[in-house]
Amino acid sequence: MSPLKLIYWCTINIFFSAGESSGDQHAANLFIELKKQRPTLTAVGMGATKMAQAGISLCHNSSDMAVIGAAEVFFRYRHIRRVLHAMQRELLRQRPDLLICVDYKEFNYQLAKFAKKNGIKVLFYVSPQVWAWRRGRV
Known about the structure:
This protein is an alpha/beta fold. The protein has one domain (10-132): 3-Layer(aba) Sandwich (Rossmann fold), CATH 3.40.50. Helix content is 50%, strand content 20%. The chain is built from 5 helices and 5 strands; from the N terminus they run αβαβαβαβαβ. Helix 4 runs parallel beside helix 5 (105-117). The longest helix has 26 residues, at 69-94. The chain is globular.
């Protein structure tokens, strides 16, 4: 087998992190398209129904992660923090080739920082909207 064919058939493991339903849909669509290009691709991560249907093994169902407004974040902070720590442990256990963060700005920023510190490559897909982060930009 030629080296190029060998590279094509090498398994690549991706860890997806999507905390909202729109991110779940984007991650599922991305995985489906990537899988067409590289059939041996495997994926695990945090997501919901669409990601599971696309063939991504879920280590956490994110349907309980969506929050709206600061008050809801305050009340759900402990749960979100527990999930973040669980995902960090899962990253260390899985040692994926790539972490793909889909939206969910604050959570994924922390997860990406942790991954990078531990030598895991990171890609933001549907990256957070930096232009809206500062006061007066929306």
